[in-house]
From TrEMBL:
This is Alpha-catulin. GO terms for biological process: cell adhesion; Rho protein signal transduction. One of its GO terms (cellular component) is cytoskeleton. May modulate the Rho pathway signaling by providing a scaffold for the Lbc Rho guanine nucleotide exchange factor (ARHGEF1). Keywords: Cytoplasm, Cytoskeleton, Phosphoprotein. It comes from Ursus maritimus.
Length: 676
């Protein structure tokens, strides 16, 4: 399936996704408006400006509720099992919104006949009750909609699994092409549903697990295509079947992992990754010893001793590794011994302080706590240096992918001896990368990065074996184009994972140096801007659909702008054709001969367009986020005006058509009268 086909399918799924995405955003808008309304000061002077502001907020609440209810009802109509519950909650929300609008309708408050009118000034309690009912009913709709999303994902996954079973048993190319086309459509839908879910997840650990599972499915889809075609072309080749089975097995595991995440059901016996992380263990240990300052009986000395020993045992992954230098190994052992001695000193002072609560003992306890904390910090630094230096050196040595190139060459030459030699070298590389991923996991610093390290470790482990089986197939059939294509796909997956590992290493360094929080804030801001832009795109499309003449120049230009904005929205979700920040900036650089005539005719749009062009052309060294932020913000402003403009142009067009019809009618009547 080509990318354009996938993109077309993705576009058709936007309406369904928009329903699921719009609800949380609309709820946030409603909450903000209600907070503004309720927090107004009762003793504020009731000037015309204040009255108008309150009325506008009340109307905005009602309007936002109306849009929320519309989306909720659309979801209800597609899900009959939940329709009654969703509709009841929507009715409650609508009634509450109308009540708030009525209580804030104070346009006639200054007139004598309005003396008995109940408003927010005379019945603030009524507004609060309505607000509570509104938020309660909105929450109900969201919870029910969440069940709908989970059901959609499970249904989509079951369809994918069923089609995969058919693909496993297929025996002819023609049948394979037909089934794989269906499989491709189902995978695109599953990818979008799970992508929406990933963006909605609040738990960063679950989000990282979902990202890892989705990455496996994305890469394995192309592998499945070439591995299956190779099996069909060489049905008696054992290595080809082994290669194909590996892809199917990994995809099934990833599909199961997605369902575990969305249903929050962990299989029995599954261990928590965080339990094997040295940095996590050190963090918890330091919290425990620092708690002794407030409570000397917080826990037993045995617990502290066992906890430290578990941490230091895990450092054996570093000291026992064949890839750790002698200097690093000696330093880690030295710091481990020092930590043990300082814990003994801490325990001794701690026991004394329980029976002798003097100032000098308290100060000595504080000093021993600081000493062991310092030693553990030094141990962390040494472990971090060891792992990151190993990773950097390994990535540098494998940057040219010499072994992969050699495997491809031995394959097309049919050189079995060369295959054995370079397969052995790739296995060595694989073991090195797996080992380093294991060490990086210990020093990653956050649970999401630990999960990413585990994903990288598993990917190198599996892909390494699959490259060897694909290379073996090509060596046995050196003239086979499909076998060569299959090996290329697996080699590209390996190279891609090497690139991902470089990114992972940078992120681990960012966490260690305290830069991670800033980047997460930037990403959250961009995601929020993107969601609002996506909703504006939907509004623009609704206005465009009203026009009977879809080839009208205004409509065509509006559609082009909406398409561009939608690409930006997909970028903020990590989807679509724009892969990098630079792609996004180039997308917004309009050439002089391509500038839309519509923009030149509308005064409001001209300043925003100039500002947008200025932003794209202004160099901002090391401030890519700032540039992307400004680009999306300016595009949002343009889209907001476009939505209003399309609506206004449509009304004017209808009015013009009506006047033309009247003119034709009058002209015809005059013509008839003249003839008479």
């Amino acid at each position: 399936m080509t990318y354009s086909q996938k993109y077309a399918i993705a576009s058709t799924l936007f309406i369904r996704r928009e329903k699921n995405e719009a609800l949380p955003l609309k709820r946030r808008n409603i909450e903000q408006l209600i907070t503004t309304l309720i927090n107004h000061k009762d003793n504020t002077k009731k000037s015309d400006k204040t009255l108008q502001a309150i009325q506008r907020v009340g109307q905005a609440v009602n309007l936002a509720v109306g849009r929320f209810v519309k989306v909720g009802e659309a979801i209800a109509n597609e899900n009959w099992d939940l329709k009654e519950e969703i509709n009841i909650a929507c009715i409650e929300a609508k009634q509450a919104g109308e009540t708030i609008a009525a209580l804030t309708d104070i346009s006639s408050l200054n007139h004598p006949e309005s003396d008995g009118q109940i408003t927010i000034f005379t019945d603030k309690t009524g507004v609060i009750k309505a607000a509570r009912l509104l938020l309660s009913s909105v929450t109900k709709v969201l919870l029910l909609a969440d069940r709908v999303v989970i059901k959609q994902i499970i249904t989509s996954r079951n369809k994918v699994l069923a089609t995969m079973e058919r693909l496993e048993k297929v025996n002819s190319f023609q049948e394979f092409v037909q089934i794989f086309s269906q499989f491709g459509n189902e995978m695109v839908e599953f990818a979008h549903l799970t992508g929406d879910r990933q963006n909605d997840l609040k738990d960063e650990k679950k989000k990282a697990k979902m990202a890892a599972a989705r990455a496996v499915l994305e890469k394995c889809t192309m592998m499945l295509l070439t591995a299956s075609k190779t099996c069909l072309r060489h049905p008696n080749c054992e290595s080809a079947h082994k290669n194909k089975e590996g892809v199917f097995d990994r995809m099934k595991v990833a599909l199961d992992k997605v369902i575990e995440i969305v249903t929050d059901c962990k299989p029995s016996g599954e261990t928590d990754i965080s339990s094997v992380s040295i940095f996590t263990g050190i963090k918890e240990f330091k919290m425990n010893i620092e708690a002794l300052r407030e409570n000397l009986y917080f826990q037993s000395k045995e617990n502290l001793s066992v906890t430290l020993e578990v941490i230091l045992e895990r450092t054996e992954d570093f000291t026992d590794s064949a890839y750790t230098s002698h200097e690093h190994r000696e330093r880690i052992l030295e710091l481990s011994t020092q930590a043990r001695l300082e814990l003994q000193q801490l325990l001794s002072v701690w026991i004394q302080s329980q029976s002798n609560k003097t100032k000098s003992i308290a100060e000595e306890l504080e000093l021993t706590v600081l000493k062991i904390s310092h030693s553990l910090n030094e141990l962390k630094k040494e472990l971090h240096r060891t792992a990151t230096q190993l990773a950097a050196d390994l990535l540098k040595s494998h940057a040219d992918h010499v072994v992969l190139k050699a495997l491809k060459l031995t394959g097309v030459e049919g050189n079995l001896e060369g295959l054995a030699e370079y397969a052995c070298k790739l296995s060595e590389q694989k073991e090195q990368l797996v080992e380093v991923c294991r060490l990086l996991r210990h020093i990653s610093g956050t649970e999401p990065l630990e999960i990413t390290c585990v994903h990288a470790e598993e990917t190198f482990q599996v892909t390494g074996q699959q490259i060897i089986s694909a290379a073996e197939t090509l060596t046995l059939h050196p003239s086979s184009k499909i076998a060569k294509e299959n090996l290329d796909v697996f080699c590209e997956a390996w190279e891609s994972q090497i690139g991902d590992m470089s990114t992972l290493l940078r992120e681990i360094n960012d966490v260690f140096e305290g830069r991670r929080g800033e980047k997460l804030s930037e990403q959250a801001k961009i995601a929020k801007l993107g969601l609002k832009l996506g909703l504006l795109t939907s509004d623009a499309n609704c206005e465009i659909k009203k026009w009977e003449d879809q080839e009208n120049e205004i409509v065509r230009n509006g559609r082009n702008m909406s398409s561009m904005a939608y690409s930006l929205y997909l970028f903020t979700r990590g989807e679509g054709p724009l892969r990098t920040s630079q792609d996004l900036i180039h997308q917004l650089e309009l050439k002089d001969d391509d500038k839309l005539m519509l923009l030149l005719e509308i005064n409001k749009l001209i300043p925003f367009c100039h500002q947008l062009q200025t932003v794209t052309k202004t160099p901002l060294q090391n401030q890519v986020f700032l540039k992307v932020d400004k680009c999306i913000t300016k595009t949002r402003s343009v889209m907001a005006i476009l939505v209003q403009l399309l609506s206004l142009c449509y009304k004017l067009l209808k009015k013009l058509q009506l006047e033309n019809n009247r003119w034709v009618s009058v002209t015809n009547k005059d013509s008839v009268d003249g003839k008479t």
